[in-house]
Amino acid sequence: MNFFEGVYTLFTNPNYMQSLFKGLQITLVISVAAAVMGLLLGTVVALITICPDSPAMKIPKWISKIYITVIRGTPMALQLFIMFYVIFTIRDFPEIVTATIAFGINSGAYVAENIRAGILSVDVGQTEAGRALGLTSGITMRKVVIPQAIKNVIPTIGNELIALIKETSIVSMIGMYDLTMAAKIIGSGNNMASYLIPMSVVALFYLAIVYMLTFVIKKIERRLRAGDKR
To answer: Cα–Cα distance between 33 and 38 in angstroms, integer?
Structure first.
């Protein structure tokens, strides 16, 4: 069977397509849930790290710095293994929840650094102007600094989301069923002679997801730039 015949067989076989779409569903669920968790966690951690030094913030800032350093300094695969085989060893605990937590925590560390850098990139004169108008530091941050920081970090946040989607493919290493695992099962259970065909089709799935996400991010960037021009 040549490559094109194999692709045709895969797309016309309902069992193969059902397997792929089941894997796609799990991949999207993990990616979306982990992205939301990462954005929320990263935002909180970023705000903690840029808070002025005070006795009350000393421990939270210390914990945040350790969290960012450890998560960014260790492989995602290792973090996933620790989550599955060390932390969440509860019998019948949902694997998809464990994977979501692992990827969400990992993404949060990178998002935190991106948001922190975006906030610090806003000219300090903006903060001084807000305070000069009588705004509190909290309102100045929320109404003046953060809206400008968001415009600066959208490209880097978008890159992190794209990386997150692709990284979820490693859940197949611990036996979870996702797009990559679906390709492995299809490749080993038919006469296609190799994994080339199902893996190529799965690569197209990932490429389509990343392309759509990139398109949305660019649309958001253009809208924000248009708002600046007005």
So the answer is: 9
Question: What tens digit of pLDDT does each residue of 39-73 get?
Answer: 999 999 998 988 877 787 889 999 999 999 999 99
Element (DSSP H or E) covering residue 191 = none
**Is the confidence at residue 189, as pLDDT, over 70?**
no
Contacts of 9-12 spanning 24+ positions with Cβ under 8 A = 9/190, 9/192, 10/186, 10/192, 10/197, 10/198, 10/201, 11/201
CB 214 within 8 A of CB 162: yes
Give the contacts of 72 (CB within 8 A, at least 6 positions apart).
109, 110, 113
Name the burial class of residue 224, with classes exposed (0-12), middle (13-18) and buried (19+) by CB atoms within 10 angstroms of its CB. Answer: middle
Sign of the Cα torsion 26, 204, 20, 88 reads negative
Q: What is the domain range of residue 15?
A: 3-229
Q: What is the pLDDT of residues 109-124, one digit of tens each?
A: 999 999 888 888 877 7
**Domains identified in the chain, total number:** 1
Burial class (CB in 10 A: 0-12, 13-18, 19+), 174: middle
SS3 assignment, position 53: coil
Q: How far apart are CA 148 and CA 117, in angstroms?
A: 12
Burial call 63-80: b when 16+ CB within 10 Å, e when fewer: ebeebbeebeeeebeebb
Q: Which tokens hold the place of 207?
A: 């490429």
CATH code of the domain containing 115? 1.10.3720.10
